[in-house]
Amino acid sequence: MQFSYMGTELEVFAKATNWKNYVSKKLRPYVTGSVIEVGAGLGSSTKYLCDRTHVRWLCLDPDANHSSHLKSLIAAGKLPPCCEARCGVLADLDRSDVADTILYVDVLEHIQDDEAEMLIAAAHLAPGGHIVVLAPAFNSISSPLDKAVGHYRRYERDDATRLSSQSLSLQATFFLDSAGFFASASNRLILRKSLPSARDIKIWDKLIVPVSILTDKILGSLFGRSIVMVWRKNPVGNYG
Question: N or C: which end of the chain has fewer CB within 10 A?
């Protein structure tokens, strides 16, 4: 399956270094062994999360331009040698192609049937492995930006339970970027921008994200602009 991604926000958010470092620190404990990264885009998350400890890191993206860009990064040594890139989606892989971690960084919200996607992910996950999702949180702060970049939804804590299945046990659910929550709320209620400018992202990354790193810790990650959801695949014969 291939398509051409029309959004331009990937280039802008790739420069959010404080955010990328913060998210990577929070996700890294769950991202182990062999990894399939669904919707790897321009590789901006791969650069922060993938290191030489991983057996294999498959960057999947349905946009041929993105997958070509990823291949060029690998060839140039800008991504670790364990990385490979392929144009397509998870459903395109052979059922024998399994991983210890399946990763969705700001991707699941772009998939209309997310429940079907989770079942596909479970089928490609080794027993004891993890599905790790970072996604925008709270429908109450949906804005023109969400529509402009093709989001079908933002996620609530209840969605983590909805997306669980017989073979997947929910391991963790927490929110990030509590200060950014209010910035997104202001965009919904006042600014109503469909796309952030490079200046907007720079201000958020340099000023708001550092505040969130502190307030998330104080508040216990009870709310935020983004949600992290982690599932573990039950051992075979231990569903329930």
Answer: C
Residue with tokens 């202001």: 186
Query: Would you say residue 176 lies in a domain?
Result: yes
pLDDT tier at 189, thresholds 50, 70, 90: very low
Q: State the Cα–Cα distance between residues 160 and 164, nearest whole angstrom.
A: 6
Which pairing describes strands 57-61 and 35-38: parallel, antiparallel, or unpaired? Answer: parallel
Q: List the domain range (segments joined by +) for residue 185.
A: 9-233
Burial of 217 (0-12, 13-18, 19+ CB in 10 A): exposed
Provide the mean pLDDT of the chain. Answer: 90
Residue 2 lies in a domain: no
Distances (CA, A) of 72 to 12, 88, 102, 177, 180: 20, 17, 23, 32, 33
- The answer to whether residue 58 sits within a structural domain is yes
Number of domain units in the chain: 1
Q: What is the pLDDT of residue 191?
A: 42
Orientation angle between helical segments 209-219 and 17-27, nearest 10 degrees: 30
Flag whether 1 is in a domain.
Answer: no
